[in-house]
Amino acid sequence: MLLNFSPRFMTPKISLYLTLSGYFALLLLLIIWHGFMYPAASQPWLILAFIITPLLLPLNGLLKEKPYTYAWTSFVIMLYFMHGVVEVWANANERIYAVLEVYLTVQVYIGAIYYARLQGRALKNSDKDNTEK
């Protein structure tokens, strides 16, 4: 294995906090950015709803700390990563918001992947321990 993706400091609890703090910060950033700072010229609330809806899909599973939800959230968050990278490149006026979006998506991605992996392992090990007894 060329890369070691299991640093000793990362625990399920740390990755949970990393994911949730980035997730809610990203949600707040998008609402402020597209709702108040630079709203769309026509139908701004419809555009904002379109931007926010995919981010709201995993909310219930994230709050219930389901590892499977954290795993597929990492795929959903890539939409926002791509959006941020395009905005950094294309829109100089909104570049600071786009950089924040990219940073927060990376934070959520890393946290979600680690949580899914570490908590999934912990649950699998606890199931093995319960069946052996």
Q: What's the arrangement of secondary structure elements?
A:
Elements: H1 12-37, H2 44-56, H3 59-63, H4 67-90, H5 95-132
User: Mean pLDDT, as a whole number?
Assistant: 90
Shape by Cα distribution = elongated
What's the number of domains? 1
User: Could you describe the largest sheet, including whether it forms a barrel?
Assistant: none
Assess the beta-strand content as a share of residues: under 5%
Gyration radius (Cα, Å) is 17 Å
What distance lies between the first and last C-alpha atoms, to the nearest angstrom?
34 Å
Structure classification: mainly alpha
Q: What are the secondary-structure elements, in order, as H or E?
A: HHHHH
Helix content: over 70%
Q: Helix count? A: 5
Q: pLDDT under 50 segments (min length 5)?
A: none
The counted number of beta strands is: 0
